[in-house]
Give the backbone structure.
Amino acid sequence: MGGEVTVNKLYDYFEKKVPKRTLQRDLVELSSANVPLVTKKGHGKEQVWYLDSNYLKFIPSTMGSQELLASYFLEKLGAVAKGTPLEKDILSLLDKSRQLISPELFEVMDDQRFGESLFAATYIGYVDYSSHSQTIEQAITAIKDCRVCNFKYKPTWKEKESEFDGNPYMILYHKGALYLVTHLPDYDNYVFLPIQRIVNIELTRENFARNPDFSLDKLREGRFGIFGHEDLKPEKVVLKFKKEVAEIVAEKNWHPTQRLTNNKDGSLTLEMKVVISDELRSWIGGWLDYVNVIKPNKLK
């Protein structure tokens, strides 16, 4: 019949045994069912139906063994979202993707559960988000719809809850915890709200205009991690690690500005330009007797 059809063409194709009203209704129902069936104006009042060309170019490809194993890895990492809408979405995505696995793959691997014994993940001091499922669901909706929200929040340094309006931008996973990156229009700054400390989040009827220049990397610029007062300027921090841990420290990228120097005695000097924050102090303190603060003096 070609790439384009009309109700009259279909009527002739089915030898005029199917009523035109039925054909019209079927085409509308297909379009409503997310099938990319679109229309354009034909002769007179006639509508021409055709499939989106991009849809016709889509050819599903099967998953190989490496992709299957990667999906198991994703499933293990997704454990942080256990009991939340995110976990359901991850499992649904994995279930759909595994439908693309070729039958031959299972014959090679013998056991579909092979990947379960290949990857593992451990969590120390993690947050159980199952009781915060509604908060996460509300936050996701607010981010997608750009809805202004009214927050009730319990800060660590206050006995009473705080209440304020904010514009949710994204959910951030940082050091085993989930944070809601939120713009506070009254102060014109961005804050990282731990999900578990949000007592209540209520979507208002008001929409906000998302800042097109927003960048998480730019927001974190000069910070060691995500925390640091906006009024504080980055300072040169110099740390000297003993030779016992020098190789361990050198294995990781701690900050974009870092510079590493191997010393003759086997020690390692790390220089970086960051804001002096509690998050930085906590990290340095974690190295106990294996690190000396060279600069600045106030950090010693």
Notes: The mean pLDDT is 85. Residues 143-220 form a domain with the SH3 type barrels. fold (CATH 2.30.30.520). The chain has four domains: 4-57, 65-117, 143-220, 235-299. The longest strand covers residues 162-174.
